[in-house]
């Protein structure tokens, strides 16, 4: 019984993190939030469902079959494959025995990821979201990014395409397109 009591707070934190994500989605889909907020909320639900191992959350923001490009290899993921993947992530999360503080940190970091994400509209019903999965460090210069393509059908935005690459973007790739710092002189 003692073991169960110690693990219960972790489960409560996980449920609270998912509830916060759901609440963010509901707020963003309210009339005043606008399309960009709705897109961010759907992308957040997709990523949060994946990272936290919650298939219901993941499924609520995904349209199957999902196209996935990882390191240049294209695959598709149907609902059964997605469920298996998310269940494996849930098992790893459980085995990791994360503390309540760890879970809170994960949830807060995911919210920051999508607050800072780039949203581009391709059309009235298609949008792309690019977000930082892992920021650059001294040991590994360059950010690791994720890119999601979402489509809106029947008023709901859902992820239809995911692109990731485990290799970070070299800083030299983006130096030419970064805006000049404020006050910098043009060449």
How much of the sequence lies in strands comes to 15-25%
Order of helices and strands: HHHEEHHEEEEH
The separation of the N and C termini measures: 70 Å
What radius of gyration results from the CA coordinates? 18 Å
- The tally of helices reads 6
Strand adjacency order, main sheet: 2-1-6-5-4-3
Secondary structure class reads alpha+beta
Mean pLDDT comes to 83
Structure description:
This protein is an alpha+beta fold and 187 residues long. It is 48% helix and 25% strand. It contains six helices and six strands. The protein has a six-stranded mixed beta sheet. Helix 1 runs antiparallel to helix 2 and helix 1 runs parallel beside helix 5. 22% of the residues are buried. The N terminus is likely disordered.
Characteristics of this structure?
187 residues; disordered N terminus
Topology (elements, then pairings):
Blueprint: H1 2-28, H2 34-52, H3 55-60, E1 62-70, E2 73-77, H4 79-96, H5 100-115, E3 118-121, E4 126-134, E5 144-153, E6 156-164, H6 171-174
Parallel strand pairs: 1-6
Antiparallel strand pairs: 1-2, 3-4, 4-5, 5-6
């Amino acid at each position: 019984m003692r073991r169960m009591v110690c693990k219960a707070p972790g489960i409560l934190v996980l449920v609270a993190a998912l509830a916060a994500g759901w609440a963010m989605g509901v707020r963003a889909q309210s009339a005043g939030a606008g399309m960009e907020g709705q897109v961010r909320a759907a992308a957040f639900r997709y990523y949060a469902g994946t990272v936290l191992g919650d298939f219901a959350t993941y499924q609520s923001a995904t349209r199957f079959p999902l196209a996935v490009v990882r390191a240049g290899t294209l695959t598709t993921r149907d609902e059964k494959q997605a469920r298996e993947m998310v269940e494996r992530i849930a098992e790893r999360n459980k085995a990791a025995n994360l503390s309540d503080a760890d879970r809170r940190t994960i949830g807060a970091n995911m919210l920051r990821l999508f607050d800072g994400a780039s949203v581009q509209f391709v059309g009235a019903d298609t949008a792309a979201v690019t977000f930082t999965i892992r920021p650059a460090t001294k040991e590994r210069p360059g950010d690791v990014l994720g890119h999601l393509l979402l489509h809106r059908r029947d008023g709901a935005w859902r992820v239809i395409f995911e692109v990731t690459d485990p290799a970070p973007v070299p800083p030299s790739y983006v130096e030419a397109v970064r805006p000049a710092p404020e006050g910098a002189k043009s060449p």
